[in-house]
Amino acid sequence: MKIVIHFCLAVACLMSVACSKSFAQANAALEKSQQAGQFTFVVFYRDNTSPTQKMLSVVQQAAASHGERATMTTASMATPEGQALAEQFKVSRAPMPMTVAVAPNGAVTGLFSRQVAKANIDAAIVPPVMMECMKQLQDQKLVFVCLTESDQAAVPAGVRALQLDPLFKDRMALIALNVRSVEEARLMQQLKVDAKQVQGPYAALIAPPGVLVGHFTGTSTAEQIAAAIHKAGKCCDDPNCKHATSTQASSVSTSRR
């Protein structure tokens, strides 16, 4: 473990270079880390206070513990560039300091305001299938997680048929998940699926922002799936839709907060 005073000096250096880092440079850093398959932790701050120092130290140490999988950068809200980056992530009005976790595919996997713990950073580094689900949900897609016991998922016929429906065809994303994957165990728990349930084509549907709509098998029809989506109030983006007030579906937890 490094001596505390050395680590504080490293944090001070981060603070000093952040103000000179432009919006373009910050985006370039994000793009570079994404191309390298790294998770990027962006620490936004307004001033060099004790909470800011503590958040920087926690994030830096936690990111470093993941080796090449994670990196960090900073953005000062005292600069136009930092404000522009905060607007990009929709955190400009959030209490500071704020850490935003960005996955290699651009998904935001964690939002931590005022304080953060190593456990939060660890949880924000999500496995591939979970990462892709979060990205598609943030793109406002209806995510059908097609479960399988092999590397090739069978898509329920009702889901295939729903892809022909003009109301849903451009809003659907199909993602395969091997139910035996130890790495994706957290996602399996959130989908409330027991591997023993998966016998033949099987899909769990999640709707934005993370609502578990239901489970569908090879016998589920497109009409039944559409009815479940309507019942959950996730049939469209119209806030005045008569289905929008439904609270039937449950929420799928993610590492964002």
TrEMBL record:
It comes from the Bacteria. Keywords: Signal. Residues 1-24 form the signal peptide. This is Thioredoxin domain-containing protein. It comes from Blastopirellula marina. The lineage of its organism: Bacteria, Pseudomonadati, Planctomycetota, Planctomycetia, Pirellulales.
